[in-house]
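RECORD TYPE: inverse folding
INPUT: structure tokens
STRUCTURE:
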């Protein structure tokens, strides 16, 4: 059955590939897929669980190998996803305006595609957490496991807010141009300076909006092709990475572009200026490679692979850490099988790479089961009112952010943070992410 489904998915990908209009910028699709795959590989590479006679340990490569901090300069690719998202949001909003669709219709279509896949993940961990609690599993396992597994949903929390703002920012872009890029960028710089050198470091947390919004605006710059001169890609690339080096070498910012367990400052929580510098450098790299990518992606089979990946990539992103934690927990349950080498010991790396293969195999069933939620059926009837959607998206984003921060475990009768879980569920209901069966009218 799985083989048949795979063949069917490939045939459908080929059909979609053949129907792709010549005007589509294929680089956007491949960059979205590749950035997610790099994030997945990075998470699997950085995790360093091991066991000994005394205990189980959830270690991290960044904590025991300082040289690995340089790796994050290549593996931290979320900025690419954000400015690719800006491009995509801009082009779909432009198309909606041409077709006479309002904000509510556009927003509903975007949020249903973005947020529907996460509901299955939350339900899975709610059931697993409750079952583990009643089975007497030590709370620390659920605490660590769920926190690691749900870290990826922070992205949905931030990106959902940016989607809501995208039409407003697109119209502002049309009127004021690069000012709408410079302003949030300036606010991000000020917010970060206040974080380190003022009595109000909490203001730096506003950079979840200001910094990522400025990166999102780069997508509009790309979409409108305002950078035609050949020197722009090199200028962005060199300037971005030079700024990144200077900030991390001489400033208070750590070299690692993701959080290092045990360190007080993380460049990603909240996002700091090195991530903005990285975004500018990666933007220049994308501009330089764009034409080559477009040329390569004209190949039918390669483009079909990108189409197929695009139909399941959010599922891979959401479930990859869950697959990793389940396999790790299973190994620890069976006396730490395959985890007896300490990180860095002789033979550790071949074994660790073998574990990455195990994680890859483990995520496949989740993709086969849940990737369908990335392609929700067309909504029946008019979309919810825009105000209701905005309120629902804020509720979902709030719940997802809290779950990404602290996981799902709680010291209560159910063993899970059910009030926090109710936030995204209520938000999903307001957004009408699923269509409830309608009663048929009985004709008399």
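DESIGNED SEQUENCE:
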């Amino acid at each position: 059955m799985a083989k048949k489904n795979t063949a069917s998915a490939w045939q459908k990908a080929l059909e979609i590939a053949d129907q792709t209009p010549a005007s589509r910028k294929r680089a956007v699709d491949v960059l979205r897929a590749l950035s997610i795959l790099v994030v997945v590989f990075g998470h699997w590479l950085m995790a360093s669980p091991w066991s000994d006679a005394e205990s189980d340990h959830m270690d991290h490569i960044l904590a025991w190998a300082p040289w690995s901090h340089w790796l994050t300069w290549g593996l931290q690719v979320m900025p690419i996803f954000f400015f690719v998202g800006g491009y995509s949001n801009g082009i779909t909003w432009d198309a909606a305006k041409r077709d006479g669709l309002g904000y509510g219709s556009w927003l509903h279509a975007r949020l249903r595609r973005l947020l529907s896949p996460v509901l299955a993940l939350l339900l899975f961990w709610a059931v697993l957490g409750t079952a583990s609690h009643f089975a007497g599993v030590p709370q620390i396992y659920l605490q660590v496991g769920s926190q690691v597994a749900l870290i990826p949903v922070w992205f949905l929390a931030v990106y959902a807010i940016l989607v809501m703002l995208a039409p407003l920012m697109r119209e502002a872009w049309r009127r004021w141009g690069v000012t709408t890029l410079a302003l949030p960028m300036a606010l991000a710089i000020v917010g970060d300076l206040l974080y380190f050198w003022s009595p109000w470091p909490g203001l730096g947390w506003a950079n979840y909006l200001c910094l990522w919004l400025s990166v999102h605006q780069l997508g509009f710059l790309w979409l409108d092709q305002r950078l035609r001169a050949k020197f722009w890609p090199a200028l962005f690339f060199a300037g971005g990475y030079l700024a990144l080096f200077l900030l991390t070498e001489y400033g208070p910012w750590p070299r690692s572009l993701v959080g290092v367990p045990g360190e007080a400052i993380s460049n990603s929580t909240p996002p700091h200026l090195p991530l903005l510098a990285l975004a500018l450098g990666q933007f220049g790299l994308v501009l330089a490679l764009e034409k080559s990518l477009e040329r390569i992606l004209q190949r039918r089979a390669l483009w079909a692979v990108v189409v197929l990946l695009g139909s399941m990539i959010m599922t891979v992103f959401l479930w990859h850490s869950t697959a990793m934690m389940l396999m790790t927990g299973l190994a620890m349950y069976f006396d730490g099988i395959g985890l007896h080498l300490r990180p860095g010991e002789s033979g550790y790396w071949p074994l660790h790479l073998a574990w990455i293969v195990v994680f890859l195999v483990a995520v496949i069933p989740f993709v086969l089961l849940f990737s369908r939620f990335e392609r929700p059926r067309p909504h029946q009837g008019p979309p919810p009112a825009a105000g209701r959607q905005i309120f629902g998206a804020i509720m979902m984003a709030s719940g997802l952010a809290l779950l990404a921060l602290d996981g799902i475990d709680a010291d209560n009768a159910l063993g899970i943070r059910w009030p926090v879980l109710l936030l995204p569920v209520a938000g999903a209901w307001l957004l009408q992410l699923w269509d409830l069966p309608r009663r048929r009218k009985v004709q008399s």
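NOTES: The beta strands are 47-51, 56-60.
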